Amino acid sequence: MTPAIILVRPQLGENIGAAARAMANFGLSDLRLVAPRDGWPNPKAREMAAHATDIIDRAQVFASLAEAISDRQWLYATTARPRDMLKTVVTPREAAGQLRAHMADGLAAALLFGPERTGLTNDEIALCDTAIAIPTAPENTSLNVAQALVVVAYEWFVAEAEAPACAAPMDEPTASKEEILGFLDHLERALDAAHYFRTEEIRPVMWRNLQNMFTRARLTPQEVRTLRGVLRALGRMNA
Amino acid sequence: MTPAIILVRPQLGENIGAAARAMANFGLSDLRLVAPRDGWPNPKAREMAAHATDIIDRAQVFASLAEAISDRQWLYATTARPRDMLKTVVTPREAAGQLRAHMADGLAAALLFGPERTGLTNDEIALCDTAIAIPTAPENTSLNVAQALVVVAYEWFVAEAEAPACAAPMDEPTASKEEILGFLDHLERALDAAHYFRTEEIRPVMWRNLQNMFTRARLTPQEVRTLRGVLRALGRMNA
Q: pLDDT grade, residue B166 (50/70/90)?
């Protein structure tokens, strides 16, 4: 199973089309769009896609990132900027080797690309297992979204499988993002009920740190169920 | 000295702008345009260039490829299609390592990209020392010119210098393309004078083979002068 390409809130149809074209060049086909600004279908995307109109025609559109990633088990955030966040950052080449290993292991992966001007939000990056930073000249770090995709897709195409950087044992199943998001939602409600976030100012950073921790752990489905059991038990204690 | 990027007969201003943008991301700045279809300057190119308008503003425009390459000593032709031609073909990664070695040796290099629909002609490829073939899915080999540039420029940026594949001793100077083209022009006139090409039908292939031979040899300036001396001597014999 090849990695899915998820364009989050893409703005220009031309960039969606250029992304599809590069996907076809480098053997990718599963295109997902989260809340495309100009709606869907988009004639400009189809025009720019050239020989890759089938990828455009089969693209799936989702209202939220959560829906787009629900069947995935491993997410890569493509981001030019290093952020103030505890997240494994790899080069496109390292990511490509890991993606090949994921494919060999039957792990469903996706590559996330943010909108043109702003890139992925910190919260979106926090949901990802790994960040990909494309090396650029320090004075010009901002890549066009379709050009960033060219680099990552090209590296994926030419890559040989390498051992993934994550430490989890490979013979254990990996939780789907639907399971992880379900747990995180459960956790947030539990924390709110317990008045864990003392002020609304500190909530975003603390919540992002928690998301990062549970994303980094590469939980198994059984572990997610265990954690939810913990939350239920603690909730009963507070009640 | 970083490699020059030469866009041969580019058609869409958007692609010229996207090329400039990728150049800026990957530390390249010397953009040359040969006979751009829609003239120059081109507002669409400038708009698409985003933060790279300085590269657009400093781009040099040439009427012919010969003028654009005259100060260069080593040319790479980017071409998706393998052609019926005796030419060293390398991957973008191999080319990147060679370009780093060229830079360390003070050899002035250029990367040629052809027009959108047709790519470089066989005659243009014949003038190049090395061809770069970007690996692609076999069912989708046609890359957008700006996307091809992204791959090659990215590889150049992340490359470490490696030994160039060419066999010429590195302590000998390499002839400039102006010297090579001057010799080739001299040779063609000499061959015409000698009625070497029996028919006009066989001329293109025979001439391309000759161009390829003399390009592959990595001649020194002294060797070019020697060859021109040979042509002059033979010309006097025929006269």
A: very low
The reported pTM is 0.84
pLDDT at B225 over 50: yes
d(CA A226, CA A210): 17
Tell me which residue of A24, A158, A166 sits closest to A96, measured CA to CA. Answer: A158
Candidates B50, B135, B144; nearest CB to A21: B144
Under 8 Å between Cβ of B49 and B13: no
Residues 6 or more apart whose CB falls under 8 angstroms from that of A143 comprise: A80, A134, A136, A151, B22, B25
- Inspect the interface and report whether the beta carbons of B140 and A25 lie closer than 8 Å: yes
Burial A202-227 (b: 16+ CB within 10 A, else e): eeeeebbebbbebbbbbbbeebbeeb
User: How far is it, in rounded angstroms, from Cα A62 to Cα B34?
Assistant: 44
Q: What is the mean pLDDT of chain A?
A: 88
How far, in Å, CA of B125 to CA of B75, rounded? 9
Q: Quick check: B85 contacting A, CB < 8 Å?
A: no
**Can you tell me the distance from the alpha carbon of B92 to that of B75, in angstroms, rounded to the nearest whole number?**
14
A32 in helix, strand or coil? strand
Instruction: Note whether B53 contacts A: Cβ–Cβ < 8 A.
Output: no
d(CA A24, CA B73): 35
Q: Between the CA of residue B223 and those of B102, B124, B172, B214, what are the distances in Å?
A: 20, 23, 11, 11
d(C-alpha B32, C-alpha B44), whole Å: 17
Mutate: best of B23, B54, B150, B152, partner A, most A CBs <10 A:
B150
Average pLDDT over residues B137-161: 92
- Mean pLDDT value across residues B179-191: 90
Q: What is the mean pLDDT of residues A129-149?
A: 93
**Beta-carbon neighbour count of residue A58 at 10 Å?**
11
Cα–Cα distance for residue pair A200/A180, rounded to 1 Å = 24
Token pair, residue A27, equals 């053997």
